[in-house]
Amino acid sequence: MTHQIKEEDGFKYIEAGKGETLVLLHGLMGELSNWEQVIDRFKDRYHVVVPILPIYELPILTLGVKALSRYVHRFLKYKNFNQVVLVGNSLGGHVGLVFTVAHQEFVKALVLTGSSGLYENAFGGSFPRRESYDYVREKVEFTFYDPATATKELVDDVFATINDRSRVIRILTMAKSAIRHNMAKELSKITIPVSLIWGKNDKVTPPEVAEEFHELLPNSELNWVDKCGHAPMMEQSEIFNNYLEKFLDRILLK
């Protein structure tokens, strides 16, 4: 990452730019670097903030999607943010949904990409062969349309994470919480604008998940990204950023 991580009062985050605030929420094993190309594209026009979700720090007995939503609430209040645009990938999208249902007054708009919350082939469901580097590489490649997107650096990071006993227990706990917390009956409460930016070849949260989100969210748009898996902001960053820019122009520059 080219951006420095700030640490204040128990919060860790990246912050760049000025203007309307975009808060980017990473996935279960997502790194802040997943958002690097989004930060670089929008930091000249917007205030871009990426908090590190405390998946490895919260007490394991309370760890879950709701606990991360409460953390986001504390963070936004600490930073005195109001009327932000939440942008979430995978678990980060799920956390954004839970937060928005509880605190819609904080959120001007929501962007979901490969979000859990309805159904997912959970990457973190189990790791029966986590000591095998080849197995881990295959699991990471499954996330993308083009296996080459799963760089050695990315595979090395995931391999180290899931072979850390403390961390893998937390990942499994978090994944089970996400699967249990189905949002279908709550989505109609979200009346703010929502943009769904989805990989046409997403195998973790397949296209039918995006279509169901679009049907259940009353003020949503659905944008497809061809030749793209579960993380469009990484794999097809220019297309993702173009969709995001058009959405922001429509809702923020009226």
Kindly describe this structure.
It is built from nine helices and eight strands. With 254 residues, it is an alpha/beta fold. It has one domain (5-253): Rossmann fold. An eight-stranded mixed sheet has the order 1-2-4-3-5-6-7-8, sandwiched between helices. Strand 5, helix 3 (91-102) and strand 6 (107-113) form a beta-alpha-beta unit. Helix 1 (36-42) packs across helix 9, helix 2 packs across helix 3 and helix 4 packs across helix 5 (152-162). The two termini are 33 Å apart. The mean pLDDT is 93.
Provide a compact summary of the structure.
This protein is an alpha/beta fold and 254 residues long.
Main beta sheet: 8 strands, mixed
> What's the domain count?
1
Morphology call: globular
CATH class identity:
Alpha Beta
Number of strands: 8
Q: Percentage of helical residues?
A: 25-40%
Order of helices and strands: EEEHEHEHEHHHEHEHH
Q: What percentage of the residues does DSSP assign to strands (E)?
A: 15-25%
| Class computed from helices, strands and strand pairing | alpha/beta
Given as residue ranges, the uncertain stretches (5+ residues, pLDDT < 50) are none
Q: What is the name of the CATH topology?
A: Rossmann fold
How far is it from the N-terminal to the C-terminal residue, by CA? Answer: 33 Å
| Arithmetic mean of pLDDT | 93
Total of helices:
9
- Classified in CATH, the superfamily is Alpha/Beta hydrolase fold, catalytic domain
- Cα-atom Rg, whole angstroms? 17 Å
Oligomer: single chain
